[in-house]
Write a structure and sequence with these properties.
This protein has 121 residues and is an all-beta fold. The chain is built from no helices and eleven strands.
Length: 121
Amino acid sequence: QVQLVESGGGLVQAGGSLRLSCAASGRIWSINAMGWYRQAPGKQRELVAAIRTGGSPNYADSAKGRFTLSRDNAKNTVSLQMNSLKPEDTAVYFCNADINTGWGSPTSVFWGQGTQVTVSS
């Protein structure tokens, strides 16, 4: 129905940078919001950054000043540029989108499969 395909991630040293990208495809009428969450081992999934259509990005305090979220509405993509990475940024990062799949349909939440980001000290 709807797929979120993530790319990017990997292993980087502290202070380095990574870029995550996510593309939504399938039965999409409209996308209300897109963003990224992360989940570290033993911790709950948490918001990293998200943006609603027509709005400005919303960042977690831990991401402010280091991460930049960008969205291409025409391509249904969202990217997260992560700079000055820290070991505590190590987690599985999940793309998230609130999507209407048809006229009059309620918004549904979709998730990507997750991509590992590991920051070594």
